[in-house]
Design brief:
Blueprint: E1 2-4, E2 12-14, H1 15-32, H2 37-51, H3 58-72, H4 83-89, H5 91-102, H6 113-153, E3 159-161, H7 162-168, H8 174-186, E4 190-193, E5 200-203, H9 204-220
Antiparallel strand pairs: 1-2, 3-5, 4-5
Helix pairs in contact: 1-2, 2-3, 5-6, 6-8
Length: 221
């Protein structure tokens, strides 16, 4: 596939060679840190889209390229949030930005500022989304650990110590164990017997059961 370019007195050049040259310039600029890598990546995306190497689907291929370039320069947002879902949800903004960047491209007068702003916005918004996913995951993990400790408490003897929980859950932090004990105490499920590190705990239901059994024994006599 071939293209004419005014930079070579209108002589025909191979599109593959043009793209190879663009990518070589990109890698050289990456290594020299001459320009901001994100900016260079987006500009290559604009070039790749407008050179149109393929008979069809050039825009989809260009999107795949920019996603890979984001990964290459350290933006991992789209490993956890769908890049294409973001494009779909913001398609009108993306499309108008791409059209603006491609306007007068053949004359060397493209205006990439809009598409640069679009991708920076995409990275910021998906970073926030990924941050929330991480927070939710951390919360779920803590919650799961807490309920794992709770299940252990109801399998232990009615009177138990914190050391029993540490022994059963060696990889769960003391802070998580303490939070679980406080939560269960506030929910009226357990009660401390004494204070300090060696204090024992008893399940409230067991206390009620023992109180009933003791009263029944007294009634007999």
């Amino acid at each position: 596939m071939e293209i004419k370019t005014k930079f070579h007195s209108q002589k025909t050049i191979n599109k593959r060679n043009k793209l190879d040259d663009l990518y070589a310039e990109l890698k050289l600029s990456y290594s020299k840190n001459t320009y901001e890598k994100l900016l260079l990546s987006i500009l290559l995306f604009v070039d790749f889209y407008n050179v149109k190497c393929f008979a069809e689907k050039n825009e989809y291929t260009s999107l795949l390229l920019i996603q890979l370039l984001f990964f290459n320069i350290g933006f991992d947002n789209f490993k956890y949030v769908s890049f294409y879902e973001y494009i779909t949800k913001n398609f009108e903004e993306y499309r108008s930005s791409l059209i603006a960047a491609s306007f007068s491209y053949e004359e060397g007068l493209s205006q990439p500022l809009h598409i640069i702003r679009f991708f920076i916005k995409a990275l910021k918004e998906t970073y926030i989304e990924v941050e929330q996913i991480v927070k939710n995951n951390q919360f779920d993990q803590t919650l799961n650990k807490s309920y794992s400790i709770q299940n252990t408490i109801f399998k232990l003897p009615e009177v138990f110590q914190k050391d029993d929980l540490r022994r059963m859950h060696p990889y769960i932090s003391d802070s998580t164990i303490n939070r679980t004990l406080v939560r269960l105490r506030e929910e009226g499920m357990i009660k401390p017997l004494g204070k300090g590190r060696s204090a024992k705990w008893i399940r409230i239901k067991d206390m009620e059961k023992f109180a009933v059994e003791e009263q029944m024994a007294l009634d007999i006599f």
